[in-house]
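Hey,
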Amino acid sequence: MRVSIINNGAEKAFAEGSERVHLVYDPAYKKGDMVCLKVEKPGFYEIRLEDTLPTTLVYLDGTEAEFPIPFGVMRAGFSPRSFTGKRHFIEARAVTASAADLLSRPRNLALNPHDQTDNKGIYPHMSSNVEYEDSFRNKIFPDRGLFAPRNVIDGVLANESHRLYPHQSWGINRNPEAWLCCDFGRPVDTSELRLWIRGEFPHDSYWSSITVKTSDGKEEVFELKKTRECQSFPFEHKSITSLTLCSLKKAIEPAQFPALSLLEVIGWESENKSGGAV
């Protein structure tokens, strides 16, 4: 295994190990810096690429992965202490076959505080068709980061407001065709879907119903309520690799800003091992 800091193709620092590797990087980050991971084979790894983020179980679908260091408005969904200052601690370790029993137990398959829009090779991964312009307003209210897709799988739930961390969420920017996709990177089996909408009422609206499309070609419609509490639904699917929230039907009320604060997908690794082996 190898972890390194790369900028514009130049390697600034690196560390190597067999089952575990860590890197202490002294300088402050500069724009263009990214953490790169190289592993012998695809599979499950535990990573901590930023001191303020928890160690996270992720799936790497190849032998190389990239994690760009966020700057400016893209930092808005993270703690204000994240990626700042000097002396950064980065680590990664392989999840061996002895952990197969752990991987077979039900857990939140969508959890990934390390997700970002421009990550490569690290799963779960969120994407969306909602766009925010780089504008003067965005420099004051950093919508691109504050309402980024990654915010719904970072494990942070503070859904009483829409302002800065820890109140990050996914917003649709008034796009009636908005969709949000969770890509697992390998086949998984699911049993339950959990949603927490943002609830800064009366500023916020909510979706009266949503459609969830899965990679197996199936669709389900779920009715939502105006509440900050968890809304849980049976969600039984076998060997799916992704799910997409779409056809978001806004409730009929004056408020114009529905948003999602947290998404959890409860399930376990699929018995179909193609792409899902340890």
